[in-house]
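Example 9 (inverse folding). The structure is encoded as follows.
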């Protein structure tokens, strides 16, 4: 059943605890496949740090419940860290924003929420002057890789994050004209 979903930037009044719970619920199916994505069990503090590093957007149900999210962030410093690991080169390019924490609650999947969130994140990156968006996902997560490929992301490398049960593929997309996505202020 389709329900009205509103997209907007994460607000200071939004609960980081609720956002963390959404991430845990959204990534549970990946954990069940043996993939320990960071969002499977990240702490509230990690969620806070990740959203504060860039611009987070949320999807809300008609009742105001958080049902989706994505974070888009500026490039990292070449001598910095990314979730405790050395930063891959593609995440340090000055013309490249980094997309992370894409999540949709299982009850709201199949309604195009993830696509709308990605449109919004890519539009934000384009408006900030970035020419590319980069992301990473688990190599064995074929459905996720195909989703990103359909959106124009191409594999540019791979990385083994410390403590992960899988290698990650690094993907990047060149941004073109912006898509039209409605945002509530």
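The amino acid assigned to each position is listed next.
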């Amino acid at each position: 059943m389709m329900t009205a979903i509103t997209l907007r930037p994460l607000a200071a009044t939004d609960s980081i605890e609720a956002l963390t719970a959404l991430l845990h619920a959204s990534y549970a199916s990946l954990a069940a496949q043996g993939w320990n994505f960071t969002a499977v069990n990240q702490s509230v503090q990690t969620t806070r740090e990740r959203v504060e590093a860039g611009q987070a957007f949320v999807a809300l149900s008609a009742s105001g419940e958080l049902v989706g999210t994505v974070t888009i962030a500026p490039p990292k410093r070449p001598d910095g860290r990314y979730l405790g690991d050395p930063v891959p080169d593609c995440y340090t390019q000055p013309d490249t924003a980094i997309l992370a924490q894409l999540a949709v609650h299982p009850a709201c999947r199949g309604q195009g929420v993830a696509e709308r969130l990605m449109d919004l994140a890519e539009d934000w990156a384009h408006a900030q002057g970035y020419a590319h968006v980069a992301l990473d996902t688990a190599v064995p997560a074929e459905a996720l890789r195909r989703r990103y490929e359909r959106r124009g992301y191409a594999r540019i490398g791979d990385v083994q994050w410390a403590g992960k049960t899988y290698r990650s593929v690094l993907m990047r997309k060149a941004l073109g004209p912006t898509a039209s996505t409605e945002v509530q202020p």
